[in-house]
Every structure is written in C-alpha cells, then in structure tokens.
Amino acid sequence: MRRRRIARLRVYEPRLRWRVAGDLPRKVAGQRIVRVGRRAKYLLLGLESGTLLLHLGMSGNLRAVPAATARRAHDHFDLVLDSGVALRFNDPRRFGSLLYTRGEPQRHPLLAHLAPEPLSRAFDADYLYSISRGRRIAIKQLLMNSRLVVGVGNIYASEALFRARLRPGRAARSLTRADAARLVRAVRAVLRQAIRSGGTTLRDYLDADGAPGYFRQRLYVYERRGKPCRRCGSPVRAMTQGQRSTYYCASCQK
Ligand SMILES: [Zn+2]
Fold first, then answer.
1. Taking ligand 1, which is a single-atom ion, which protein residues have CB atoms under 5 Å away?
2. What is the mean pLDDT of residues 149-175?
3. If phi over 0 gives left and psi between -120 and 50 gives alpha, with beta otherwise, what is residue 226?
4. Taking the model in full, what pTM does it have?
C-alpha cells in the first residue's frame, strides 16, 4: 500500500460518524501514500500533502478488493489505488470515520488527547507508576484501559504480567516503582516480539485483539490453562476479569 498512488476516492455514503467532506475525493486524488501508521484505533495514511485518518468504528472493516468488485450492502467508500486494488470500507452501523488533515496528525483534535502508545517514550515507569497510584482496580485491567494506555490487548497484558512476575489480579496501587519499571519493560518486550513474529501495523489495526500465529506458539500463559508453566512447571491457572479470561502462574507471579 505504501508508495501507491490514490487513483480516486469513491464515496457512496458520506454519513459516517462524521460526515465525509464533499471535497475529500478531489483533495486526495493523485496523491501518493508516503506513510502508513496507526495511533490507537486510527489508521493513518500519510499522503504527500496531508493525512487520512480512518477509524473502523465498532463494526467496520477494511478489505482490499479489485476495484471493479460489485458493492455489497454497507460498503461506504472505496479508496482506489493505482494498482487497481480498492481499499473498501464496510460498516453496517456507520460509526467509522474518514477524515483528512493537512496538519500534524498527532495534533488533530481526535488524536491529541489519546493515552500514550505502549511503545512510545511517554509510556515509561514513571507514567505507569503515577497512573497506578490510588487505584484499586486490578493491574491487568489498568493495562487494558485505553484511556490510560492504548493498544494493550488481552493476550499482551497476560503475557506481560507473566514476564514481569506480577499477578494480574493485584491492585494497581500495590505496585512498587520497581514493579512498574519491570512491567513497562515486559509490555514493550511482548509487543516487540509480536511485531517481529509477523505483526504489521495494518494487521494489528485490522485485528486489534488478534496476535500473529508464530507469536501464539510461544505464549507463556495465555490460553494455557492447566498446562505446565514454561518457567516452573506448575499448572497455569485461569480466572475471569472484566469478562475477559486471564491466565497466570500462581507460583511465578506475586
Ligand atoms: Zn510458573
């Protein structure tokens, strides 16, 4: 997708979460995609003179199809590339959005106040320690709260807590400064490993709760209930937190 030129933008239904600007097709036509990034759940397509901000909403999906493919119900726009492929957006509930900014995308009002990305410098031990002060919620739920840090899904939170040797159910406020530092390192290590094992920016975005297959084969605790802990051999335990399954080793994690 990167280096491709946008042949045209075809908008079939502009009434998304925010109305797609009527002049957007004219603005983006002919521009080359020079950067593909992600910020929280926004896909950022950096063009030569601006950035497209695409959000899938609750139910939306983006798929790559030959541009001549017949439209289905709830297909709302096609970003047609010069390769003949269209990135087609489908969203039955129309909570998704397609916006454009000429300025620095991180300063866009929708992005400027988002919580830090776990791989950014802003997510460090001081930050994690400070947001955990006074909070009774479990540390795993704090990690998965996108208002505090974005993009740490269930798999990654479980695995990071194992590596940091912290029980997922521990109250966030009980963490020491050293615990916070260890947990930050663990979160970063787990995410970097997932990216190395085949996660890509786009795939992570399209399948936010998934994880690459190769990464899954090397999980320490996630979905390994009853199996021996890879570190100590004790059976991995499971519990439910906030309607999500959590896995941990009771002897390695305190
Ligand atoms: Zn263990």
1. 229, 231-232, 249, 251-252
2. 95
3. left
4. 0.72
